[in-house]
Amino acid sequence: MWVVKIGGSLFGSPSLAAWLNVVANGGHPVILVPGGGPFADQVRAAQQRWHFGDTTAHSMALCAMDQYGLLMAGIQARLKTAAEPGQLKKMVASGHSAIWLPAAEDPDVDRSWGVTSDSLALWLAMGVRAEGVLLVKSASVTMPGPDLLDSAFEGYRRLWNGEVRLVHRDGYSDWPAPITA
Questions:
Q1: Which listed residue, of 10, 40, 81, 174, carries a Cα 20 to 30 Å from 23's Cα?
Q2: What global pTM score does this model have?
Q3: Mean pLDDT rounded to a whole number for the chain
Q4: Could you tell me if residue 106 is left (phi over 0), alpha (psi between -120 and 50 degrees) or otherwise beta?
């Protein structure tokens, strides 16, 4: 089983619908982790405006991921949502890709902007004993910059023995080669 994180940066890209279509119809079920996209950007703007703490912003950012996940399910009706990792595993075991909605689960992680959906994908992968994590990014993955992954990512990476792969948003035509290769 693999966890596939689809970045919020795909929100305005035709690649989002393409990824959702190949995941839903590709015959290789996975657990999708949504980024926060423009919904998380609103949380950042609200925190800057109203100066509330990171714990509140963290809870709101999880809700932003839920919103992006619900949007994904609305775009591709074959994808179902679930909050509980055990339920996600059952959906994948039955041959269906599923979208994780993390707000109800409220993962036990540092409540700061240093933990984004990238690290949460690793957190979930540990919990469901996934084989690997695929991160779908809009930024270049061949020449990654310092902001490609959140600051907590390497710490989570060291705690987990699975495989991590990065793929550019336009790599959907290779599905599922990034996972099975």
A1: 40
A2: 0.93
A3: 91
A4: left
Reported confidence tier of residue 79, pLDDT bands at 50, 70, 90: very high
CA distances 72 to 2, 36, 42, 81, 132, Å, are: 18, 12, 18, 9, 21
SS3 178: helix
* CATH code: domain of residue 97: 3.40.1160.10
**Is residue 1 a part of any domain in this protein?**
no
What pLDDT shows up at residue 181? 47
Domain span at residue 134 reads 6-180
CA–CA dist 9, 4 (Å, integer): 15
3-state SS, residue 5: strand
Q: Is residue 29 part of a domain?
A: yes
Comparing 151 with 63, the larger pLDDT belongs to: 63
Q: How far apart are the C-alpha atoms of 119 and 108, rounded to whole Å?
A: 12
CA dihedral 151, 155, 161, 163 (to 10 degrees): 10
Sorted by sequence, the CB contacts under 8 Å of residue 49 that are 6+ apart come out as none
Burial 17-38 (b: 16+ CB within 10 A, else e): ebbbbbbbeeebbbbbbbbbbe
CA dist., res. 96 & res. 89, Å (int):
10
CA dist., res. 65 & res. 7, Å (int): 10
User: Do 125 and 179 contact (CB within 8 A), yes or no?
Assistant: no
